[in-house]
TrEMBL record:
Organism of provenance: Nocardioides guangzhouensis
PANTHER family: 3,4-DIHYDROXY-2-BUTANONE 4-PHOSPHATE SYNTHASE, GTP CYCLOHYDROLASE II-RELATED
Species lineage: Bacteria, Bacillati, Actinomycetota, Actinomycetes, Propionibacteriales
Its job: Catalyzes the conversion of GTP to 2,5-diamino-6-ribosylamino-4(3H)-pyrimidinone 5'-phosphate (DARP), formate and pyrophosphate.
Required cofactor names: Zn(2+)
UniProt protein name: GTP cyclohydrolase-2
Cross-referenced CDD domains: GTP_cyclohydro2 (cd00641)
GO cellular component: cytosol
Pfam families xrefs: GTP_cyclohydro2
Annotated positions binding Zn(2+): 71, 82, 84
Record region (Disordered): 208-234
Residues bound to GTP: 66-70, 87, 108-110, 130, 165, 170
């Protein structure tokens, strides 16, 4: 009997037209895609944008893709403790302009869940940074994983992409799952007084690169390694 990995069995369940708001106040035509058979059984979504939102699948060009992990407080309520909301809206606009997919992954709070994330916020108010707080609660510093994202991409027929992210780990995990990441495209940095400490922790502890600390574009094109000018102290 032929061996097929379980992760290969997902199928598209529905492609539903969904007009969505852009950061500039305009509306863009999208399709929200649901799946059957995703490896972890969660209700992850793909938002097809730009030319990928058309009725017929479009084969032209390498899609721009963003992996966005759910952040209820940031995405929905506009929490100033993180930059998830502005990151999400920036990604929708940029992918709509270029053509591609936003994968909305239901792994809240770096994968520890909503209530645990709220517990971590209290620890952070006591002086811990976002990584230390997760460790204090008995979790890893980042429990997110992207194998299911690779499964979604394969189901959509995407085996090569440009990845919109400042997080080199996302590119590494996608490559490990067999997806070709052609370019890593940096996002903007959405700083506010309330999230400055969070962003500094991401840069210092999570090897994120911040957009106002410019990338060496040659390095990004070579495959997502963190450039010397992209490093951040802290
Ligand atoms: Zn957030």
């Amino acid at each position: 009997m032929e061996h097929v990995p379980a992760a290969a069995h997902a199928t598209v369940r529905g492609r539903v037209p969904l007009p969505v708001l852009r950061a500039d106040g305009g509306v863009t035509r999208a399709r929200v895609i649901s799946f059957d058979g995703l490896a972890d059984g969660r209700e992850h979504l793909a938002l097809a944008l730009g030319d990928r939102a058309s009725d017929r699948p479009c084969a032209a060009g390498v899609p721009l893709v963003r992996l966005h992990s759910e952040c209820l407080t940031g995405d929905v309520f506009g929490s100033q403790r993180c930059d998830c909301g502005p990151q999400l809206r920036e990604a929708v606009g940029r992918i709509a302009d270029t053509g591609g997919y936003l994968l909305y992954l239901r792994q809240e709070g770096r994968g520890i869940g909503l209530y645990n994330k709220l517990d971590a916020y209290l620890l952070q108010d006591g002086g811990l940074d976002t990584y230390e707080a997760n460790l204090a609660l008995g979790f890893g510093t980042d429990e997110r994983e992207y194998a299911v994202a690779a499964q979604m991409l394969r189901t959509l027929g995407v085996d090569e992409l440009d990845l919109l992210t400042n997080n080199p780990d996302k590119a590494t995990q996608l490559r490990a799952a067999g997806i070709r990441v052609r370019h890593r495209v940096p996002t903007g940095v959405h700083r506010s007084p309330a999230n400055a400490r969070y962003l500094a922790a991401k840069a210092g502890r999570g090897a994120h690169t911040l957009g106002d600390d410019p990338f060496d574009p040659r390095d990004v094109i070579r495959g997502g390694r963190r450039g010397s000018r992209g490093s951040q102290d802290g």
